[in-house]
Amino acid sequence: MIYEGQSLQCQMLDNGIVEVIFDNKNESVNKFDQATLNEWREIINLLNNNSEVKGAIVTSPKSVFIVGADITEFLVMFANPRETMIKWCIEAGAIFSGFEALPFPTVAAINGFALGGGFEMALTCDYRVASTAASVGLPETQLGLIPGFGGTIRLPRLIGIDNAIEWIAMAKPYKPADALKTGAIDAVTEPEQLIEVALQMVNDAINGKLDWQAKRAEKQAPLKLNQVEATMAFTTAKGVVGAKALSHYPAPMEAIRVIEQTAHLPASEALKEEHEGFTTVCQSAQANAMVQIFLSDQLIKKKAKIAAKTASKQVKSAAVLGAGIMGGGIAYQSASKGIPVVMKDINTAALDLGISEAIKILNKGVQLGKVTPEKMAKVVASITPTLDYTTLQHVDFVVEAVVENPKVKDSVLQEVEKAIGSDAILASNTSTISIDKLATNLQHPEKFCGMHFFNPVHKMPLVEVIRGSQTSDDTIATTVAYASAMGKSAIVVKDCPGFFVNRVLFPYFRAFSQLLNDGADFRQLDKVMAAFGWPMGPAYLLDVVGIDTSFHCVDVLASGYPERMSALADDAIEKLYQAKKFGQKSGSGFYTYTKDKKGKPQKLVDDSIFELIGQPNTELNEDEIIDRMMIPFVFEVIRCLQEGIVDSAAECDMALIYGLGFPPFRGGALKYVDQIGINQFIENAKKYQHLGAAYEAPELLQQMAANNQNFYSA
């Protein structure tokens, strides 16, 4: 062994070839943290001074190659002054360039994930061979960043401007076959032959069969395109990417700017522009928020893994009670992840609806090429429709998804508890009804909890797992593990009116109704809140959720939190409900819903709506609209954290992003407060305290302001 560190080792093989091994002894994966960069620098210096070395291969004995940079170090690092960040970029970039400049051919043997900095490392090599199990790409823009280790320079010189911009701006991982077609890698082989092929490749380079010096020179030279070609390529790219990225996500456009500015420069000079561009985006509010989202998501995944390890049993079979749209969606989700499910209802028509919902989802997948006909057949065969309870005797887990009525749910839950095994877990897919209330007549309340899915089930990543006062830890662990096995992100919340997501959403809707009472135009409110970053404005969202669904939540939340959530007089939502305008489902709500000539749904404004809800008579300042909508929403999130309804700020924010589509570039409600500043947020709220208790800062927030704290710290 020539070198042995904690993250890297280096050994001499036959024929003057060295193997540089990425194998972090303290982690399950390889990633570029500062310690790894330092060790890599030492190996480069060692190899530069060893005249016996004729070539090198880079390998990893782990199931991954290198997943990228260590994101846990990012937030602290990004808080440094700009000059410090650029200095760090220069120093880190010099290590990558140093490996690229070694006086002999190099080959990367990519066995698994090589993403971000991991693929940038591979790009420094003269050749790249990938196993069929590998996955490569530069997904930095998903974190609000751009490649910072030379990716914006080396990749365009290997695969061309158009392909490189697509790789970087779209941030997708690529399979080896696709990467081979573009030239991002040079060969693909089966996993067991990877090292052999890499050694053959480096030997061919040493023996002159491969012109590795010409290959290297291509990466270091200016791009070969004239001014007309360049103008056309970059103009098209800016139009396409700009339309998708919008102003809230500056990283993709910054990546294009760097590529454009450096196209006619040699790599050594071009890297300086990448350092500047990387520093610009890494110190943006968007990157700060999106890196935090990544870290928070890792926390949720870690908790799910712990749950899977601590649960007394693994869910291998399940059942769903209620075969409507929601029940069919839950059945599909379970079956599609390899967990067979029984779907129970009281009539054949309902079962047919549930099965057709699963088939509809699968058909869409087949049309898009994401699902094979064989997979579709297997999933459908894994769903067993039934009209009686006997088929449920041996299932491990039951999700009740019948109508949102406490008496109906109570009756169904008592019936099914008698039909299932004593060790089976029972969960209710209720959106508002108290878990403790539903557990009142159960024989085993410790084996009962809430499992709140969001519609449409196959698209929405969040599941709220609701802990009742008698729910056991094992029940929670098993439910979280089952949700995770279904491909969902589970967040545990305590039982309370509205649980978490619906509880915090109601003050947002109530603020909307207050604005309408004050003469605001729902069209302006939708426009402003969509520009804020929500997937849709509040009026449109109410139509999509269902005016009737929202109206029925009022009593539960008003009785639970009368000071902040009491019903409003002259509420537009109630007027729509009484007029049976339930939103999209009925064809009209705030908007009317029709289909265009091509059969695509479209929403329109029918002026007659104002005869029902009242004519708008004022146009408000955008900042006032945002404050009035967001302050009660954010304050209710903070109260949930204060009351221990949710364990952490990270889980609060991820529930909002996954369950409501809270703007990811803002990082969640609590990250949003951090970025505005807690003291400033409290000051903003004081202007609206005359509107009621919903605008009064929670005690937790006032304490944090007094102690100069934030919800997140680097």
From TrEMBL:
- Please provide the record's keywords in A-Z order: Fatty acid metabolism, Isomerase, Lipid degradation, Lipid metabolism, Lyase, Multifunctional enzyme, NAD, Oxidoreductase
The segment(s) forming the 3-hydroxyacyl-CoA dehydrogenase NAD binding domain are: 318-496
Show the InterPro entries listed in the entry. 3-OHacyl-CoA_DH_CS, 3-OHacyl-CoA_DH_NAD-bd, 3HC_DH_C, 6-PGluconate_DH-like_C_sf, ClpP/crotonase-like_dom_sf, Enoyl-CoA_hyd/isom_CS, Enoyl-CoA_hydra/iso, FA_oxidation_alpha_subunit
Please give the Pfam families that the UniProt record associates with this protein: 3HCDH, 3HCDH_N, ECH_1
Record's signal peptide: none
Tell me which family the UniProt entry assigns to this protein.
Belongs to the enoyl-CoA hydratase/isomerase family. In the N-terminal section; belongs to the enoyl-CoA hydratase/isomerase family.
Highest taxon in the source lineage: Bacteria
User: Known EC number(s)?
Assistant: 4.2.1.17
Which reaction is this enzyme known to catalyze?
a (3S)-3-hydroxyacyl-CoA + NAD(+) = a 3-oxoacyl-CoA + NADH + H(+)
Q: What organism, scientifically named, is this protein from?
A: Aliikangiella maris
Gene that produces this protein: fadB
Question: Domain 3-hydroxyacyl-CoA dehydrogenase C-terminal, which positions?
Answer: 498-593, 625-708
According to the UniProt record, what class of enzyme is this?
A: lyase
The pathway to which it is assigned is: Lipid metabolism; fatty acid beta-oxidation
From the Swiss-Prot or TrEMBL record, give the protein name.
enoyl-CoA hydratase
